[in-house]
Amino acid sequence: MEKPAAGNRKFGIGLLVLLLISSLSGFRIQKAEALSWAYVQSLRFKKVENYFFTDTECSFTLNIENVSPEKVTVSVNDVPDGVSFEGWNKITYMPYSNASSDQYGTTLTLSFKFAEPGWYQIKAIDVRIDETYAKIPVEAVEVFENPSTVRPKISLSFDETKVQVSGKTVKVNANEHIVFKMYIQYAIQVLKFDWARPEDSVFKELDYYDISDKVVVGEFSPEKIPIAVFDWQPLKTGTYDFPEFDIVATSFGGIRYDVESPSYKIEVLEATEAYVEEEKDSGVFAYAFVSPPSAQEDVKEKTAEDVPVDKLFDLYTRERHSIVLFSSAYNERLALEEELGLSSLKHMPSVPLFVLVWILCTVSLVATIVLFILKKIPHAALCAVLFVLLLTLGVLNGHQISKKYGVYQGGEIYSIPEDTGGSGVDMPEGSVVLVKHSTAGWLYVVFNDTYGWVPENSVRLIE
Known about the structure:
Blueprint: H1 2-34, H2 37-42, E1 46-47, E2 52-53, E3 58-64, E4 72-75, E5 83-93, E6 105-114, E7 118-120, E8 125-129, E9 132-136, E10 141-144, E11 153-158, E12 164-166, E13 169-173, E14 178-185, E15 187-195, E16 201-208, E17 225-234, E18 238-241, E19 245-251, E20 256-259, E21 265-269, H3 277-280, H4 308-320, H5 329-340, H6 351-373, H7 377-402, E22 404-408, E23 411-414, E24 422-427, E25 432-439, E26 442-447, E27 450-455, E28 459-462
Parallel strand pairs: 2-10, 13-21
Antiparallel strand pairs: 1-3, 3-6, 4-8, 5-6, 7-10, 8-9, 11-14, 12-13, 14-17, 15-19, 16-17, 18-21, 19-20, 22-25, 22-28, 23-24, 25-26, 26-27
């Protein structure tokens, strides 16, 4: 009776161990799925406020699912000039109201201050999520001057059918019309709007707009709002200042300001001195209507000797498909990289060496089996040891062969696979990079201690 009982106990213990292993495996799979490469790469710090202003705390936030706050840490190592890091915090994130405790995540919030208005791209933030380290990109933002201090501004747009605008100079023929629209920015109300009529000309208002139809009191907007359209017809040649306007407006901060008039010079030419259409077409937007010249015009055809990238690529390809002892490619490559001041890869994994190792591995395995059959045990044991060594070498070599390397054409790398995700870090032309991942025309590469995204067409893969 004791034997069946002992058997039942062993069976029960085995079943419990199996269930425990299954549970742990399920946990690991769930955890791996939650922190998959695709999921980590999809994370972005997004701005919290609709508009960011100078000298105020501006926040970015990030939600991480299925990872509790105590398993998340942040390191902000570098910020652009004019930006100060104010701090960060983390709280429990509940994806939905009835989520269970094992589905709670983490909400990260970063706070910054900006000294000057303009566009800013903060570098990717170092975040540790459980046991995974990642650089999480930050959304690029435009920072506006603080509404409590910003002054209303006037700007103009010209109908360039009959005038030529270059910077702050407007050229027009006598008796022609200068039609322009006036805009105001950073104002909630125009209290006064008058102007002085310029001499020797006809000057009239064609339209006037009430900006209260466009502005919501208490809500900031950077939009340029039209306030009037004018028609100015100079009658004599000469150089004129732009007409003086007397404009009083209320800012978002509730302060009344005298708004400065636009600063333009008007050059009135004789009718016979009118600029020709070809000159006008050379303006800012002329390029939009002209086909670009062929990329091949006046360009000398490049050869492998002219371009270090091409020569390096050829040498690395030769090295990959040869054995170092029987090829000069390795030494030639090292000499070229030293001449160009580039970092050198110790050895490019050799495909022929990989094939040779596996052939020898197969031969040693067959020899081991044959010698055991012939009962030559000492010799069979030596062959078995050799087989194990060659097998280990073959696996390691195979791991190296499976890595993708490429020669980079040089330029900036990106923190995210987007044209707007520039990191400000350049890699030199001819750098040999390790390709880790790829997605939609972009490659994630590693070069020494530098890593990030580059356009796929900027890397020549060594195959």
